[in-house]
Amino acid sequence: MEADEHGMIRYVISVNNTEQRVRPEDIGSTIIEFLKNVAVRNLTSPVTKVVMSVPAEFDQLQRNYTRKAANNAGLEVFRIINEPTAAALAYGLHTKPSLSNVLVIDLGGGTLDVSLLNVQGGMFLTQGMAGNNILGGEDFNERLHSYLKTVIETRHKQSLTDKEDLQTLRLAVEDAKINLTASDHTFLSIHLHSLGKNSLFQERITRSKFEELNSDLFQKVIDPIQTVLKATNLPPEEIDEIVLVGGSTRIPKVRQLIHKFFNKKPNTNIDPELAVAMGVSVQAGIIGGMWPLTVSAVELPTRVKKIQIN
């Protein structure tokens, strides 16, 4: 990675032993073009227009480069909306007149973002944002991975350093974490070739053990929630709806902590990994005339800055 003559970031990569320099929007364009082609194959019709979502804290320059990446992929961008707004759209919260304050908690693989939206007459206004850019599902995985690595080394009386075996363990840990969202225990069974004759490693993992290993990290999910509420002078009881986004919000302990903090269950009616995409689809449907205008929503410009908690 380096800066060009204007101070903008670009990446230096090697393609067929030839050094090339590409900008982030070039990489973004390649990804968007791939997704466009997937859509074309599934819809069997041309795709030329798009509605996109971005993190709420994106400034105008970042939004412009996002638009440029889509344009370079052959797409006309009708609208760019914030991810928390998209999630709220997916849940249809803009159609509920009794709602005023919506908290969107987005916990993915590597980051945590909390946004407070004020909803009035179908209009969304971001009132506060806070987050932790080094907290997510991968951190929870790492705790379990480290624990199991120690178990293996103790049981087999040798260090586990083989990269392939470590990756095998890492993939098994991800599967175990997912299984523990629906069950109170799971069984891990993998072959680690560097262990020789006793290459099979099997272990029963309980949800309670997973929660114990990550207890301090789970508690950190509450920190940006408290920060947003403090910054906006809102007590927890004035939050009308809690929306969950991101695969890591499926973890039962995360949901329990949020429920306990607000004394209210979060809204889990929609797959948290699909909420943003579904909301963007709703917005695209509105613009394209496929949804009645009565469900449309207006997003007011964001003027607040995100508070980073690491």
Automatic annotation (TrEMBL):
This is Stress 70 protein chaperone microsome-associated 60kDa protein. GO terms for molecular function: ATP binding; ATP-dependent protein folding chaperone. Pfam families: HSP70 (PF00012). The keyword DNA damage does not apply. InterPro entries: ATPase_NBD, Heat_shock_70_CS, Hsp_70_fam. Coiled coil: none annotated. PANTHER family: HEAT SHOCK PROTEIN 70KDA (PTHR19375). Belongs to the heat shock protein 70 family. Keywords: ATP-binding, Nucleotide-binding. SUPFAM superfamilies: Actin-like ATPase domain (SSF53067). The keyword ATP-binding applies.
